[in-house]
Amino acid sequence: MDLDNIVIESFGSNVKIVRINKPKKKNALDFIMYKTISRILEDATRDDAINIVVLTGTGDFFSSGNDLTARNVSSDSDFYSALNDFIKSFIVFPKILIAMVNGPAIGIAATTLALCDLVYASENSYFYTPFTKLGFMAEGCSTYTFSRIMGERKALDMLLFNYKMSAKEALQCGFVNDIFKQEDLQQNVWNKLRDVTNLRCEILIANKKLIRGHIRDKLLEINEIELTALRKIMNNSKL
């Protein structure tokens, strides 16, 4: 695991904080970081003491998405396997997954927010999915979740035409739960966590399953479809 670029912290006894910690690269995610976050979520699933996991970033960015300059993967197959496991770890995580978006979220850092249970963002955040601009396919189940959350028109604008959504717009369309001033974000999220940290974990899990369980298999299927299309386009194959 990469515990330099991914830092694990605690809030009380039952909240694990996962902090993306590569500010010199705007918290861009690479192969090892994908595997590390997947492993952390798997470990939190098995840890009876953990009720909630919070994802956030160090510095001015939540994450600029995939690190296109990274060279720490031995093969394309290994990379796509890690990416698949990373997205899948969000889909199958049974406990409460919260994103504390401290700045811009780009690419897969934006799409996986739709797989979180709650999203709190700073006012200076924005959400940007420039897949077609870069010649990539949409990922992170966004071809399903974006329309479901924000409506088809706005989803098409973001995923096809690279629309950059502001924090205010994200709040208005339901993509985030609340927005705060940058300097107040963390304290406001901690205050909200204090209200829920003592709730019974099994009750949280059971209710989340009732709310989101019926789309779990659909999301897993969408993830496979999206990544298959991504591999084809990256290999210059016909879709």
UniProtKB/TrEMBL annotation:
Gene Ontology CC terms, in alphabetical order: peroxisome
Species, as recorded: Diatraea saccharalis (sugarcane borer)
Name the UniProt record assigns to this protein: Enoyl-CoA delta isomerase 2, mitochondrial
Location in or out of the cell: Peroxisome
Matches recorded under PANTHER family: ENOYL-COA DELTA ISOMERASE 2, PTHR43684
Record-linked InterPro entries: ClpP/crotonase-like_dom_sf, ECH/Chromodomain_protein, Enoyl-CoA_hydra/iso
Predominant cellular place of this UniProt entry's protein: other
Domain of life: Eukaryota
